[in-house]
Amino acid sequence: PALSECISLHDLETVARHVMPSKAWMYYSSGADDEITLRANHSAYHRIWFRPRVMRDVSRVHFSTSLLGQKSSMPLYVTATALGKLGHPMGELNLTRSAAKHGVIQMIPTLASCSFDEIRSAALENQTQWLQLYVNRNRDITEKIVRRAESSGVKGLFVTVDAPQLGRREKDMRMKFDDVGTDEQKESGEKIDRSQGAARAISSFIDPSLNWNDMGWLKSITNMPIVLKGVQCWQDAVLAAQHGCAGVVLSNHGGRQLDFAPSGVEILPEVMSALRDHGVSTDKFQVFVDGGVRRASDIIKAVALGAKAVGIGRPFIYAYSAYGEEGVDRAMEILRDEFEMCLRLLGARSLDEVTPEMVNCSNLGSA
Ligand code: FNR
């Protein structure tokens, strides 16, 4: 179908599923084990209802914001997803170019298909990019990656902490990959075991010994704000604040790691209240959420509950797998239109006016 016939992110996914290589579909769409968490990520949003306000002059609404000190046109960012070229030959560059046009921040994955330099050079001069980091068993390699990112102008470091070992994504494991690997891995001649699916093939370097004592080292090698990606309970959010992080992403890695891990938005209320109880200012310490976001209304719910922004993964990679960069443009436009409408109908003119009282999350319960 023509791109203009896609009027929701779901439509883009449906097209992608039919046109993209099945290996790519299996890698992108899979979740861990029985995919209970994968499904729960999206359905958690269905348990949150609005309490709209009326009669509030919503002729003008705006929803730009500031994330880790960087401007963003909407409270969302393109999160890191590995192996962008499985779905489309231009891979991550589709995301870079579209993010630039829409004033949205892109998180560059450690395991991008395109090289880091390629992704940085595709960015406009004033375009913000962050780096997602998998800490390597060889810390010298990690230090080099981090320093290179900072000196090239990357504005934030998102350290993935929910993947000391990659989860079992069975759909992906059943595919036998012979051509997988990042450009950098191929260049370095690193030996890759391709018999267990794409995810396992590329991830054996990740250091499972990473722990809170490493925060000192991480902070010593960079001045970028450090955010822990993959926090799944309030205790770890408080610890992250106490260890000098700039924020956390409440995330279960898109349901690809521990099945039955809670969804980010489900634990958001208890995280916000624990941070308050521990005297953490959530203006300075920013809380992000990702997983299962498919509508601007989902984003507004997360914002109402205290998130600064949400990360969106699969919808953007499906969009470019189906239609290239224009598909991502379309996804961004759909979200922007939905935002405008949803804010108006909710009775909020700006994100500041989206408050906890505007949602009913009594069914959210994560006791
Ligand atoms: C991911 N995610 C991820 N996260 C990370 O920190 N490093 C990575 O290399 C990857 N790779 C990756 C690949 C693919 C195909 C997916 C779908 C996801 C997780 C990602 O950043 C994010 O947490 C989820 O994708 C959010 O869920 P949705 O938006 O995909 O539902």
Main attributes of the structure:
metal-binding; 367 residues; 39% helix; alpha/beta; oxidoreductase
Concise synopsis of the structure shown:
With 367 residues, the chain is of the alpha/beta class. Helices cover 39% and strands 12% of the residues. The protein has helices at residues 9-19, 22-29, 36-43, 93-102, 116-122, 139-151, 170-174, 183-188, 197-202, 215-220, 234-242, 264-277, 296-304, 314-323, 325-346, and strands at 49-50, 65-67, 70-72, 76-78, 105-108, 129-133, 157-160, 226-231, 247-250, 286-290, 309-312, 359-360.
Give a structural overview.
There is one protein chain. With 367 residues, the protein is α/β, with parallel strands linked by helices. Helix content is 39%, strand content 12%. The chain has 15 helices and 12 strands. The protein has helices at 9-19, 22-29, 36-43, 93-102, 116-122, 139-151, 170-174, 183-188, 197-202, 215-220, 234-242, 264-277, 296-304, 314-323, 325-346; strands at residues 49-50, 65-67, 70-72, 76-78, 105-108, 129-133, 157-160, 226-231, 247-250, 286-290, 309-312, 359-360. An 8-stranded parallel beta barrel has the order 4-5-6-7-8-9-10-11, surrounded by 7 helices. A two-stranded antiparallel ribbon has the order 1-12. A two-stranded antiparallel sheet has the order 2-3. Helix 11 crosses helix 12 and helix 14 (314-323) crosses helix 15 (325-346). The longest helix has 22 residues, at 325-346. It starts with 8 loop residues before the first helix and ends in a 7-residue tail after the last strand. The model has no long low-confidence stretch (mean pLDDT 94). The protein binds ligand FNR.
